[in-house]
Amino acid sequence: MKTVALLPVLLLLGSFCFLEAAQILCLVSSAKHNNPSWSLPLFEALLAKGHHLSVLSSSELKLTPREGLVYSHLPNDYDVMQKHFLDKETGKYQPMMALKQLLVWYEVILGSCQSIMGSETFKRLLPELVTQVSQEFDLIITDITEGANCLMDLVPSWDPIPVLGLSAGKLTPDLISLLQAEDTISAARTPHHLSQVPKNMGFWNRLHNHIMYLGEPIINWVIIRPVLSKTVSTGKVFPKLQLVLLNTHPVVDYVQNLPPGVIEVSGLHIKQEISPLPDYIEKFTEKFIYGIVYINLPYIESIGQGIESMVQMIHDNPNCGFIWNVKEMKVLPAEMPNLLTLHNDQSLQQDILAMSAVKGFLNHGDSFSVQEAVFYGVPMVVLPVNLEQFNTAQRVKERRLGVMLSAKDFHLQSFHDALQLILDVQQFTTVLYQAQQNFLARQQSPIEIAIWHAEKLIAEPRFYRHLAQVEAIDQNFFVAHSLDVLAVPFLLFLFFVLNLLSVISKLVEAPKKKELKKRKKIKKVVEKTMPENKTILEQNVSLMEDLKEELIEGEMELLSENQSDIPKGVDGLAEENNLTDEDLLLIQEEKTLLDKKED
């Protein structure tokens, strides 16, 4: 009976279990500045689950050789900083406006493809790579951080195979297009991933933001795709995705309205278990009771007064210990009693940040470093220098997770002043603690979420196809933004306004027309009576002048009789036409004007 009762449970569990290992193709072509090794924990977890992986990666992944793993390293030496942000003659950092960085962002796709496919390693391994990707796979995992992956061009046909995308960046219109999902990005509310505009945007911020978003498709379709089509198949390097694992989280990014095919896995690269630090680091940290500050700023040499400001900060804080990763630096700082320099990659960074003694973290504001700082509750000083770093640094500033510096306004005391701020426990500790709790409070860890969705795609390849909204992608700009519908009330409103203006105009002109009509009527009356009155008046004046000295009473009577025959004057006209005193005044004015004209 017990076995029968457990049968439904066993069947349910069996639906999520794979009877045999899946064949998975993993393609990572990201350049060095995009940290291509961030996907390593996912690959390790899939191998641990018993799946077989064929990995083509531009990162030297430290994957332990084992059964079920075929790994090929393809170098990508493209360096966006050297090509666009550092002066070729002086090596100094040169700031760049956001609109120009948008061009650089898309140029990274071309640069990465040329770097990988033009390398001697790629040409030498090409026959072997073609054979490797020509096998039958149950799932393709591709890194589309840059919006494309040129290694997808090696796959002969992947139409029936589900494709899972990995993105180390933020949600972009390009990712939504690859998912064939509805565009949930609002340029009026969502800052562009390359911009430094605040979350609460004013008019000019929104204008700048709209220009950035409208410029993306123009650059992509007019410049990038035509150039790529000469070397690769754009239909392959811009694959149609069933699902995207996105390296974002509302704690360190702005809140976004994500399409259903986008799953947030921020912190995917963070270790599950911390490794012990070397003895020399442990001994160094024990000397400083005020804590440790970790520094990882590969491009600090190119910033004006960058090294000098760093040395000044270390010198002014002798009670703090400073651990400085100087692997990327050409000129090393002088030895100081409270400074320990490291000459390795970032493999120790998480182990150092996990120490309770660490009180500050200086970095360039890349999303991985910011996530690690929040995960371990360490306040930051961020100095962004390129692309998405400016957006991430702005979020750090807005959320009060640290202090943001500007390379453009950098000076000798910049690091010293910023460090004093983050060492203020009352200002940052509470905010960071809350952010840390929100970042950790998830139903499943990022790696568990990623594994669940990857295996779900393998078990049911068509499970996520219903999330695509092809009809939304096919709509033109006017229909997608409801401009055709909004045109109807706009035209009605315009018609109403024009009619209202017409009515107002008529009301204003009516008194003027009435006054003009009245004046014309009076003028006609005056013109009708004025000639007779004027002639009689002239005769009387002439007669009076001739007989001025010889007037007699009889002649006066005769004159009076003659005047009785004169037609009615102005007073008579007033009685006959019912004219008011105001009308008589107007008549007098008109008569005066006519007199002047005749004179």
CATH architecture of the largest domain: 3-Layer(aba) Sandwich
Unreliable sequence segments: 1-19, 562-568
User: What's the number of extended β-strand segments?
Assistant: 13
Distance between the termini: 132 Å
- Number of discrete helical segments: 22
Give average pLDDT, whole number. 80
Radius of gyration: 43 Å
Please indicate the percent range of residues in DSSP E strands (runs of 2 or more): 5-15%
* Shape label: globular
CATH class membership of the largest domain: Alpha Beta
Report the biggest beta sheet as strand number plus sense, adding barrel if it closes.
7 strands, parallel
Helix content: 40-55%
CATH topology of the largest domain: Rossmann fold
Structural class: alpha/beta
Question: What is the number of domains?
Answer: 3
Strand order of the largest sheet: 3-2-1-4-5-6-7
What would your notes on this structure say?
It is a single chain. With 599 residues, this protein is α/β, with parallel strands linked by helices. It has three domains: 14-82 and 113-185 and 234-269 and 445-480, Rossmann fold (3-Layer(aba) Sandwich), CATH 3.40.50; 279-440, Glycogen Phosphorylase B (Rossmann fold, 3-Layer(aba) Sandwich), CATH 3.40.50.2000; 514-598, no CATH class. It has 22 helices and 13 strands. The chain has helices at residues 2-15, 40-48, 80-85, 98-117, 120-133, 173-179, 203-228, 234-237, 279-285, 306-316, 349-353, 367-376, 388-398, 414-422, 425-440, 446-459, 470-474, 477-480, 483-546, 553-564, 570-577, 581-598; strands spanning 23-28, 52-57, 69-73, 139-143, 163-167, 243-246, 262-264, 292-295, 321-325, 339-342, 358-363, 380-382, 402-404. The strands form two sheets. It has a seven-stranded parallel beta sheet, with helices on both faces. Strand 8 (292-295), helix 10 (306-316) and strand 9 (321-325) form a beta-alpha-beta unit. Mean pLDDT is 80; it is low at 1-19 and 562-568.
